[in-house]
Amino acid sequence: MQRRSFLVGSSLALAAGLPRLGAAAPAYPAGRPSLVVGFAAGGAGDLAARLVADHAGATRELAVTLDFRPGAGGTIATDQVRRAEPDGTTLSLFSVSPLMVAPHLQAVPYDPVRDFTYIAAYAAVSIPVFVRADSPFEGWDALLAHARDNPGRLRWASAAPRGLAHIATAAAFRQEGVEATFVPFGGGAEAVTALLGGHIDAVVSSDYGPHLAAGAVRLLIESGPAPTPEQPGLETFARRGYPLSIAATYGLFGPKGLPAEIVAWWEELLTDLGESPRYRDFLRTAHAQPFFQGSDAFTRTVVEGHREIGRQVEALGLRP
Fold first, then answer.
1. pLDDT mean over 63-82
2. Could you tell me the pTM of the whole model?
């Protein structure tokens, strides 16, 4: 049977960064917009949303209000966008979990395929598999070999149970014929603390940056389609042909039926953002990668990714 592999984004797209659209953007064709953020202020989502708001203010004199609506893994904020008027005054920060993962695991009041307009993606966050620096696993193949020789004894974690990293890594283990034990934690910081304390063997999370800089962890493989910015030669799930290798992107989306001129305005702004010093600063701070998808490509990514994640959730028996 031919193996299926779903890859969202590509190393070429990530490396190329954002293309130029050329002409300067006109004035925003709507009232003052608010950008809904489904996470608490002060985190990575705040940084990603503020990056866009600051750029809109600095280059287009458009005041963008950030509206933080944390709770229920971003699904509360997502439903707020579903119920908004499609006039360009309410948009939201996109993240994978509430739109591509959560609908397969819980009842949500929206359909990610039918209820939204996907505007553009503008950055991707690395989510590698990593171990302690003194781990005996020098690489991904060594970890797999140990797991095969010791079924169920490899203990690993991700930042969120049943999140993208959990599902993608479990699917990779399944394809490799590996039986490993997933240990749930409340967040990436807790999982990394357990790893550094020797309680688990590996973590799949974006919370690796400071620990890598301090020499405390070793990266084995990237779960997305492109290597981490710190290690361009790192192996990836995409190169291995694993069932899921989805870029954990930040982007913008809005309610269904956004006018084409609104979508085009934000596509152009985000293209311009990719050439700015503030964007490069954000990439360094967030350990993120340059990435751009316009509305058409971004919509295909979300729709196809949502469907493939659903297939993997079913195959892995993760559906509640």
1. 94
2. 0.87
